[in-house]
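Changelog note: in this version the structure field was regenerated for every chain. One regenerated record is shown below for reference.
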Amino acid sequence: MSSLPKFEDHSRQEVKYSTCYMCACRCGIKVTVENNKVRFIQGNRNHPINKGVLCAKGNSGIMKQVSPAKLKAPMLRKQGAERGSGEFEIISWDQALDILTERLRKIRETDPKKLAFFTGRDQMQALTGMWATQFGTNNWAAHGGFCSVNMAAAGLYTMGHAFWEFGDPDWDRTKYFMMWGVAEDHASNPIKLGLEKLKRRGGKFVSVNPVRTGYQAIADEWVGIRPGTDAMLALSMIHVLLRNDQFDWDYLVRYTNAIQLVVCTPGQKGDGLILRDENGKPLCWDLEQETFVDATQPDVKPALFGEYTAPDGRPVKTVMTLIAEKYLDEQYSPENAEKVTGVPAEQIERLALEMEHVAFK
């Protein structure tokens, strides 16, 4: 029997362990290097994030090093060439820095705000932001501002964790998982593993997205929402939960500002602000003491709903009262939300009540 042909000279190769930089997941990777150049990339089975799974973007990470389109030196448009003609010539870094320094000097001396720039996934947004501030412009942005920063903020407020990519949802206990819109090119390996675990256990996976590709293709229920109307869908579901008195009273009292009192003096100074004592502490109404007390104290017995008159005579209402007054309005009913989102009213109500059933029953 003839031996298999030798495709690789493994004696000239070595494996380096690192993390993928193609998205924020930072999946573990094994990089095979030959002659100090990347030969190919594989997933690291021993890494806790991806356990060896690597998406197409991760596998193509090699192109960051070997792509023929990669710029290897500064390039300047040829003299006399029209913008967009694609005619460039290579220049030195010193020459490039001198050109930029002169251009930036003129902008800063005239109007710094005329400078606008965008940086990619550099993970140095604090530095670029500080630089922009020192230069004098606020017209700057970065990849994270359109992707991970808003996602991190939402994660902190909903799950207590910044990044869902790292598999923070409790996949081992979750019975009902609703995903609201995920970029189709963001092939998070941790969430793939988590969804597989969820579905193997019989949990329900609902996906809210205008298109049914990627994660939506394996969802138990796809909600084909009209683009840009997610907020209306969420507020209509809140309407349903409020109308049916289905929310966690104890959680709202302990972990949110729902019990705090808001000044209600439309058109006057202080309207919409939290009522505070002389030490700046937010106030609530204690049902047992029947008086205003520090809302941050652990032993208060606060009113979640109610409207009162502050010691200085101003009318006040709890945050939860204002929320209920606003979102119980008919404009947020499933019937009206259907007109905006394209999601049937029956489906909106059913989804809200399904979540309620899983949470409280």
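Spot check on this record: The radius of gyration is 28 Å. The mean pLDDT is 90.
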